[in-house]
Amino acid sequence: MKHVAFLRAINVGGHIVKMDQLKRLFESMGFSNVETFIASGNVIFDARTTTVRKVEAALAEALGYEVRTFLRTPQALAQIAATKLDANCTLYVGLLAEPPSDEAKRKVEALSTDVDTLHVIGSELYWVCRRKFSDSTLTGAMLEKALGQKTTIRNITTIRRIAAKYPPK
């Protein structure tokens, strides 16, 4: 079964990991057909079964720091990729480990501004940015605090490119 791992804290904040090293790490966990997609911590692999804990533990041991991991199937990515909220804006997707509580959803959505609109659907945070990202007053830390959990954020273009390359079977 195909899986896509979105890794937090890869090639940001001084944590530099070469994609060939990341590929070898996933192969050492027993996964097959391992590929990376751009140098921002996106790893595609085949596995009969896997758990986030297994991946996170192996990465922490190999890299020496915590790497939060968010797994999605090609089916889930196809659904995310199909999301259209505002064609004239940039859409970012925050991947979550689990759906946030109703209270957390309210807190996140209350952070919306004239520049940014936030929606939570299932285990994803959709961030519509109406201007340049640098014009936003929101930060990942603010979103994580409101959500009550960690997230990793990707541009919808990245999600759509991965979804197109690895469609559901």
Structural summary, described in words:
The chain is of the alpha+beta class and 169 residues long. It has two domains: 2-72, SP0830-like domains (Alpha-Beta Plaits); 76-165, Alpha-Beta Plaits, CATH 3.30.70. It contains six helices and eight strands, in the order E-H-E-E-H-E-H-E-H-E-E-H-E-H. It has helices at 19-28, 52-63, 74-81, 102-109, 140-147, 156-165; strands at residues 2-7, 32-36, 42-46, 69-72, 90-96, 116-121, 124-129, 151-155. The strands form two sheets. It has a four-stranded antiparallel β-sheet with strand order 2-3-1-4. Strands 6-7-5-8 form a four-stranded antiparallel β-sheet. A hairpin with a 2-residue loop joins strand 6 and strand 7. Helix 3 (74-81) packs across helix 6 (156-165). The chain starts with a strand and ends with a helix.
Please supply descriptive tags for the structure shown above.
6 helices; single chain; Alpha-Beta Plaits; 4-stranded antiparallel sheet; alpha+beta; 33% helix; 169 residues
Question: What percent of residues are in strands?
Answer: 25-35%
Q: Gyration radius, to the nearest Å?
A: 16 Å
Integer average pLDDT? 94
From the N-terminal CA to the C-terminal CA, the straight-line distance is: 10 Å
User: Architecture of the largest domain, according to CATH?
Assistant: 2-Layer Sandwich
Main CATH class of the largest domain: Alpha Beta
Counted by DSSP, the helix tally is 6
The count of domains is 2
